[in-house]
């Protein structure tokens, strides 16, 4: 390849940036605090169940 030819690296990544930056109107929007609270409650319930079963 000559030094003057364009490899297309920047051009091909521009479509990915545009794709991941767009917000989908049909997507489920969750509050991060809700997800964190669910994970903590799920972890605590697994620990409680593991203590009662064993």
From TrEMBL:
The chain crosses the membrane at residues 35-53. GO terms for biological process: protein transport. Keywords: Cell membrane, Membrane, Protein transport, Translocation, Transmembrane, Transmembrane helix, Transport. The keyword Metal-binding does not apply. It is found in: Cell membrane. The keyword Protein transport applies. InterPro entries: Preprot_translocase_SecG (IPR023531), SecG/Sec61-beta/Sbh (IPR016482). Residues 1-31 are cytoplasmic. It is a single-pass membrane protein. GO terms for cellular component: plasma membrane. Involved in protein export. The function of the beta subunit is unknown, but it may be involved in stabilization of the trimeric complex. Component of the protein translocase complex. Heterotrimer consisting of alpha (SecY), beta (SecG) and gamma (SecE) subunits. Can form oligomers of the heterotrimer. Belongs to the SEC61-beta family. This is Preprotein translocase subunit SecG. The gene is secG.
